[in-house]
Design a protein that fits this description.
The protein is of the alpha/beta class and about 280 residues long. The protein has helices spanning about 10-20, 55-60, 85-105, 145-160, 185, 190-200, 225-230, 240, 270-275, and strands spanning about 1-5, 25-30, 45, 70-75, 110-115, 165-170, 175, 185-190, 210-215. Helix 1 crosses helix 6 (about 190-200) and helix 3 runs parallel beside helix 4. Bound molecules: nicotinamide-adenine-dinucleotide.
Length: about 280
């Protein structure tokens, strides 16, 4: 069976194009830019906007000889704070059209790239032994975070009304290697990303789940791995092993909240709009 990856040309999409095929999945792609020919798994790629139903139909419909799509990994969208019009077009309209296309084509399993910024104004645990649970209620830190809360709510609606199975991954910082001190706690390695997505695609008893997308990060992690384990995957990587030279920098005000710098005044509506982003 085949998996459609939206946003396949991007950072997270590229990690999955290079790794998910090894887990036995045939892959197909949709992105508004061309998917690079960079050694990732081969797969028919549709270039188009995720809010465009015609392009989505093209991506979902199996051509002669292709496997039917059985699941979607929905990554396409605006991946950081931006003016509302930008966030709305990609993450609100785009995510709605994605779910509608899945429904039209009889696809019921979706892995949705949510974000820690859906709950960014949640205080971090003070006690190092405490982990924040996978199902924290919404506390978005930006309009971007609001759009991820929307995506999670839309997912829940399609589960309850149309029998979908959806895992919403509240991803921390997914990159090849951690880049800053915060990521000692929040890093999601490419290998753990792949294991988590594969688990979410296969989990037999999945109806709806919000799950932290984070590596094991022993000694630093603030987030529970219970949800990840319930999907059948045990995260293994540790940011501090990948970048031993990174040193935790306690004391920054934004460090006390899950969303880090996104919770600061710099990411207010006026500030982001004024920057013209
Ligand atoms: N990378 C992380 O640490 C992280 C953390 C939390 C959540 N996420 C989420 O994961 C997803 C992927 O993030 P990323 O870091 O790979 O971002 P990215 O910008 O590298 O990739 C996003 C991809 O989506 C495509 N895209 C954007 N708008 C589109 C549209 N309207 N139609 C079709 N394609 C569109 C872009 O062309 C790009 O290839 C996003 O939804 C992001 O919010 C990522």
């Amino acid at each position: 069976m085949a998996v459609l990856i939206t946003g396949a040309a991007g950072r997270v999409g590229s990690m999955l194009r290079h790794r998910l095929g090894d887990r036995g999945w045939a892959l197909r792609y949709l992105d508004r830019v061309a998917v690079p020919d960079d050694g990732g798994a081969p797969g028919r790629a549709v270039v188009g906007d995720v809010a465009d139903p015609a392009r989505l139909d093209e991506a979902f419909r199996a051509a002669d000889g292709e496997d039917a799509i059985s699941a979607v990994v929905h990554l396409a969208g605006q991946p950081t704070e931006a003016p509302w019009a930008v966030v709305r077009a990609a993450n609100i309209d785009g995510t709605f059209e994605l779910f509608e296309a899945a429904r039209r084509h009889g696809v019921r399993r979706v892995v949705f790239a949510s974000s820690n910024h859906a709950v960014g104004f949640t205080p971090r645990p003070g006690d190092e032994d405490t982990e924040l649970p996978d199902d924290l209620p919404p506390r978005p830190d930006t309009l971007y975070g609001v759009s991820k809360v929307f995506g999670e709510a839309l997912a829940r609606y399609y589960v309850d009304r149309y029998g979908f199975s959806v895992a919403c991954l509240r991803i921390g910082s997914c990159r090849e290697a951690p880049e800053q001190a915060r990521e000692l706690a929040t890093w999601l390695s490419p290998a753990d990303l792949t294991g988590l997505v594969d688990g979410a695609l296969r989990a037999a008893d999945l109806t709806f789940a919000t799950v932290w997308g984070v590596s094991a990060n022993d000694g630093y992690r603030w987030w529970s791995l219970d949800g990840t384990r319930a999907l059948g995957y045990r995260a293994v990587d540790r940011a501090a092993d990948r970048r031993p030279e990174l040193v935790a920098e306690p004391g920054l005000a934004s460090d006390s909240l899950v969303g880090g710098v996104f919770t600061t005044d710099r990411f207010g509506i006026d500030e982001v709009g004024a920057q013209g982003r």
